């Protein structure tokens, strides 16, 4: 009995359609006259169309999804186009298409339902734009659409699998040469070696850039080109730099991601070798240079999520990092736990970047800062609103 009821529920539209056709036909037969037959013949085309839709093969549709770019930066927009192809020209009154978004997009309240009117077309398409994408790796799986008749008596639905992955890399900002030089060569412990490069062998000349020293100017090339030209030095092997990112939940987590990306971009642009250490996970990206390394680091930063546990993997603590590597630890607040964590890298130069103004520090953070300075750890602050280093007092004196 229950099975029979389930069958009836699944075919209520068919039963209702047949019942309406039967009632209109019986009314015309018994009542007779022009009006009754006019009602029957007027309803007949709509009922026949609805019956045809009941047996319309939605599985014959071919759905193709195209995207203008599969990789972008946070805040950018991506345009997605859907193309539907079918084998026949049966007129379709309408089609409602719904893109099933990834869970993180649904949590933001994004919904994408679009109604189109195919008519007699065998191939038709639609497009929409995803604006202000957030950092992460977004996976699209399926497309849901349905068709219906004039009166809504019949609806047919189909779901097509069409995997698509869009990687949204974090934003990064161009940091000035003076900012990098201030961060790595000032503070409580002044480094005797430049972290960017050793200036010993001249390999050529280039245009002057803000921050270049006066002694680097090549006066002969300047006189010849009428533009200020500076010496270009060979990039020699220096200490590798590893970036660590705090992964505890914080209101400034995204700003910390942006800062890590900005530091990595600036250093790689200067020809340095940069590595990345993921807190809480077992991933260590060895130090290297070039655009390929930048892509590796940015791809990892795109996938980073806040975690409850903020402990560094034991393999890192046991000395996997090179002995001469410099460690940059990016945090959103200062605690003794983080100072102890960075103090574990005794052979390395410790540098802690804090994504908040120094004027906003609490008493506990000031005590942690003093402890870090006493242990030879340099600390720098930057304004999280503009990702600009605080020039008033960049390093702890």
TrEMBL record:
Residues 205-345 form the DUF58 domain. It comes from Peribacillus simplex. Pfam families: DUF58. Keywords: Membrane, Transmembrane, Transmembrane helix. This is DUF58 domain-containing protein. PANTHER family: DUF58 DOMAIN-CONTAINING PROTEIN (PTHR34351:SF2), SLR1927 PROTEIN-RELATED (PTHR34351). The chain crosses the membrane at residues 12-30, 36-56.
């Amino acid at each position: 009995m229950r099975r029979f009821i389930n069958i009836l529920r699944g075919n209520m539209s068919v039963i209702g359609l047949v019942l309406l056709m039967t009632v209109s036909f019986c009314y015309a037969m018994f009542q007779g006259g022009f009006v009754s037959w006019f009602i029957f013949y007027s309803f007949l085309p709509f009922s026949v169309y609805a019956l045809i839709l009941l047996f319309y093969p939605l599985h014959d549709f071919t759905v193709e999804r195209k995207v203008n770019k599969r990789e972008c930066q946070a805040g950018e927009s991506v345009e997605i186009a859907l193309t539907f192809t079918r084998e026949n020209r049966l007129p379709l009154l309408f089609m409602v298409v719904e893109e099933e978004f990834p869970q993180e997009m649904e949590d933001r309240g994004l919904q994408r339902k679009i109604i189109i009117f195919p008519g007699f077309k065998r191939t038709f398409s639609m497009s929409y734009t995803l604006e202000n994408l957030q950092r992460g790796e977004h996976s699209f799986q399926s497309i849901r659409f349905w068709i219906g008749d004039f009166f809504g008596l019949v609806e047919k639905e189909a779901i097509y699998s069409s995997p698509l992955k869009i990687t949204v890399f974090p934003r990064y900002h161009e940091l000035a040469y003076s900012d990098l030089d201030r961060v790595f060569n000032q503070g409580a412990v002044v480094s005797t070696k430049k972290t960017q490069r050793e200036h010993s062998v001249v390999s050529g000349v280039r245009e002057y850039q803000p921050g270049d020293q006066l002694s680097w100017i090549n006066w002969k090339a300047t006189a010849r080109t009428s533009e200020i030209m500076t010496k270009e030095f060979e990039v020699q092997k220096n200490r590798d730099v590893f970036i660590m990112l705090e992964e505890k939940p914080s209101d400034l987590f995204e700003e910390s991601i942006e800062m890590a990306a900005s530091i990595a971009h600036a250093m790689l642009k200067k020809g340095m070798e940069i590595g990345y250490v993921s807190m809480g996970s077992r991933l260590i990206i060895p130090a290297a240079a070039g655009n390929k390394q930048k892509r590796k680091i940015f791809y990892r930063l795109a996938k980073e999520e806040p975690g409850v546990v903020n402990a560094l993997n034991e393999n890192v603590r046991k000395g996997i990092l090179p002995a001469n590597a410099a460690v940059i630890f990016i945090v959103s607040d200062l605690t003794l736990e983080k100072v102890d964590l960075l103090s574990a890298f005794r052979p390395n130069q410790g540098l802690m970047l804090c994504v908040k103004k120094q004027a906003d520090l609490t008493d506990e953070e000031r005590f942690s800062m003093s402890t870090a300075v006493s242990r030879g750890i340099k600390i720098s602050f930057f304004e999280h609103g503009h990702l600009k280093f605080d020039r008033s007092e960049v390093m702890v004196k």
